[in-house]
Amino acid sequence: MSDDVPLGFLFALLFVLLVLSAFFSSTETALMRLNRYRLRHRARSGLRTAKLTETLLERPDRLIGLILLGNNAVNLAAAALVTVISIRLGGEAAIFVGTLILTFVILIFAEVAPKTIAARDPSRLALPASLIYYPLMKLAYPLVWLINLIANGLLRLLGVPGDQEGGHELSSAELRTVVAEASALIPADHQSMLLGILDLEEVAVDDVMVPRQEIAGIDLDEPWAQNLDLIRDTRFSRLPVYRGDIDEIIGIIRLRTIHDDLANGTLNERILKEKVFEPYYVPEGTPLAKQLASFQRQKQRVALVVDEYGDVQGLVTTEDIVREIVGEFGTDPGPSGPEISRETDSSFVVDASSNVRQLNRLMNWTFPTDGPKTLNGLIVEQLETIPEIGTDLTIALYPIEILDTSEHAIKKVRVSIPD
């Protein structure tokens, strides 16, 4: 009966089958390579094809079953048709040649080329294809359901859950990689802020706090005139008030509450103590993300960081956390920032008590941050002693020269930029 069908019609039918095979192959690749977050955004924006595609991908096992069912059906039909054409053209001896030619054509024109095109721009093929697959899934659902029932049953026998889709949630480290690689889409300053937000879980209050020895405060054991000068000259809006030692803290004073008394010359110790509020303590090691939420919940802007014995180790403010996200404001590192002065294009004099993380962020350096929090700590950890003036060493490829020391700590160093 096939002898009555014109060869031209058979070749035309074969061409249609190859086009369908290319369609199934390319859309399978496109649908599986879709960016799920971009697809979700388009679906929420009201794009119909995106909504249909998202629905189909809720059960990828069924979608793959439908695609493979269609792809195998058209490939088997093409093979049968080539057999008929080969017999018509050259008899049974031509079947082998026809099969080789069909294999080559399917491999190049219905597999490799379509899948390569689909992989380069998945959404261009996947979204329109959903208009075909969605009704096709409804029509072929009983057969697809049976195929997946058998396939998932076999997977369970092998210990593989066949009805669960792999999660698409991203960890913070993976999100950090996505943001870091999105430089073409996100401005550099916004990219830095996003990375800063993601880093809040990895950074503790210890990393950004003002160290104990650098806390500016009002010591009531000092002469009152000296405290007045401190209040007038300070750049801070809040100061701790203590007696003799920061561990003997009385409270925190908002300077705006004593502005009028200071201007009128009536400010004294009694008035100051009446207007202080209770200090807010946080344990060292608290992640910045948690601390920022605590600041918001407690309606506080400054906290004293204490160790396991209750001793004050430093002071952290909301500004310190914001600076960790957005970086330094301008070229001035701020009141709690590291003291740095440039000597030459490749060397800087740095206060050794500077926080290592702040140094790295401000200067784009790469000192290690998983150990001591200050540059002094890094140097002492490496040398295991307080070095003499003039001592040279190298940390993370940065040559360092000790310029000034005290009995208990290093005060000034020269940091050179490696070639």
Structural description of this entry:
- This protein is of the alpha+beta class and 419 residues long.
- It folds into three domains: 2-157, no CATH class; 205-326, Roll (CBS-domain), CATH 3.10.580; 340-416, Uridine Diphospho-n-acetylenolpyruvylglucosamine Reductase, domain 3 (2-Layer Sandwich), CATH 3.30.465.
- Helices cover 53% and strands 15% of the residues.
- The longest helix has 31 residues, at 60-90.
- The protein is elongated.
- The model is unreliable at 331-336 (pLDDT under 50).
The gist of it:
This protein is α+β, with helices and mostly antiparallel strands and 419 residues long. The protein has helices at residues 7-32, 36-44, 48-57, 60-90, 94-120, 122-139, 141-157, 172-180, 188-199, 205-208, 224-233, 259-264, 269-274, 288-298, 318-326, 356-363, 375-383, and strands at 210-211, 218-219, 238-243, 245-254, 281-283, 302-306, 312-317, 340-344, 347-351, 392-395, 398-405, 410-416. The chain folds into three domains: 2-157, no CATH class; 205-326, CBS-domain, CATH 3.10.580.10; 340-416, Uridine Diphospho-n-acetylenolpyruvylglucosamine Reductase, domain 3 (2-Layer Sandwich).
Q: What integer is the average pLDDT? A: 85
* Residues in β-strands, percent: 15-25%
Class from helix and strand fractions:
alpha+beta
End-to-end gap: 83 Å
Contiguous helical run count: 17
In N-to-C order, the SSE pattern is HHHHHHHHHHEEHEEHHEHEEHEEHHEEE
Radius of gyration: 35 Å
Largest sheet: 5 strands, antiparallel
Strand order of the largest sheet: 8-9-12-11-10
Number of strands: 12
The poorly predicted ranges are 331-336
Helix fraction bin: 40-55%
Query: What is the 3D form?
Result: elongated
**How many domains is the backbone divided into?**
3
